[in-house]
Amino acid sequence: MDSVFQDFKKAYSEGHGYGLSMTLSPIPPSSDPNRLKAFFRSTNHASAKTDFKYHILYDNSMPFKLPQDEGNGWVEVYFAYWKAVGEILNAETASKAGAKTAWTKAYEAWKELANQIIRGYTNCGFEAWTVPCLYVAGKYMRIFAIKADEATGINTAKITTFQDESNPEAEKNEKLEDAARQLNRIFQTCLADRAPLEDSRKWGIYYIINLLFKTYFKLSSISLSKNILKAIQAYRGDMPNLDAFPMAHRVTFKYYVGVICFLDENYVEAERNLTEAWNLCHKDATRNIELILTYLIPCHLLTTHTLPTLNLLSPYPRLQDLFLPLSRCIKKGDLPGFDAALAAGEDEFVKRRIYLTLERGRDIALRNLLRKVFLASGFEESKDGAPPVRVTRIKIADFGAAISMGSKEIMEDDEVECLLANMIYKNLMKGYISREAGKVVLNKKGAFPGTGV
Where are the transmembrane segments (predicted)? Predict the structure, then answer.
């Protein structure tokens, strides 16, 4: 117990919010691996509140004197923490024995800790610099909710860094859904603070938003994330600028906003936000960069019709497996190969919610195939001794033969015309179809925009 309150005393006297939050962590420090056990065993249920009140309010060695209301608020917080630690220790022991249902009790105890911290801000005058305590409460409430749902066989999705994977097959995520509601309370606690910005809980807003995004994505309730963005927009004038927040908060926020835009098929905005996240992300955060590129690469394919380079993908073997087969086929204009690569990676593409976007890459592959036909048609002599120019009147049958060659199925002229008309409509090819002549008349100044011919 003494080590916990020594750290509490030090952090409070220095006004160090992150140091204070570490006294409420369910993970013991590496320098003191038995800290949680020692803290829980240092008192009992009958004496815990009295002991904590002494350390927080009446210890004469404290370099400061807390107001009675604020002090009592922290007593309730540490009492809830003490009970939660006991449930966590029980759950860890039960897990080793193969019984995981104890994580439900650990979650409920940790939720009570979060509620006590919220009450501290609303009723007991906790200061804004202590907001990192809300970070710890929210972060581990979400983790314990996932563990509790896993224990009942509900949700077995793996926890990752950004934790963007949804679990659409889950029947129910009872505790995680409850955790989302509690996180929303924390969000409102920060958002509704009316104190001047320098002393405002609004400085904790983006960390909590990011926890909500992770939770909503895990629950496949991505539409709820848009409500958070609307709430932020409504308070924009009373909020600090995003650039003023810690880098980690900004990267995660931009990543999730980018993915939300991506799923709304707003690829320009998605690319802008994901590019910002990529540029801000720490170079050693390999997993996070990999997740950002998972969505940024398909975005870039659709907005600029460019493919990822081997140099970009080389540090990320998983991304190479995902995108290199498709990229090679798109570059070569290999339609059957593209279809095969898309089918081979279908499960992973669907899981990542990028299948439909990548499927549109088939248009780029088709464009490259048609471009090869155009280049293979050669040149024609110009009048008056001018340099020869490329043939721009090409038979529809020539394009049809190229398309049919790979699939080994003869396409009807009407089908080929339909494909060519779509390519012209999408501005992937410039020209028009002359049905009477059975030819495509291509633009002499740029038949295939962006390809240099």
Answer: none
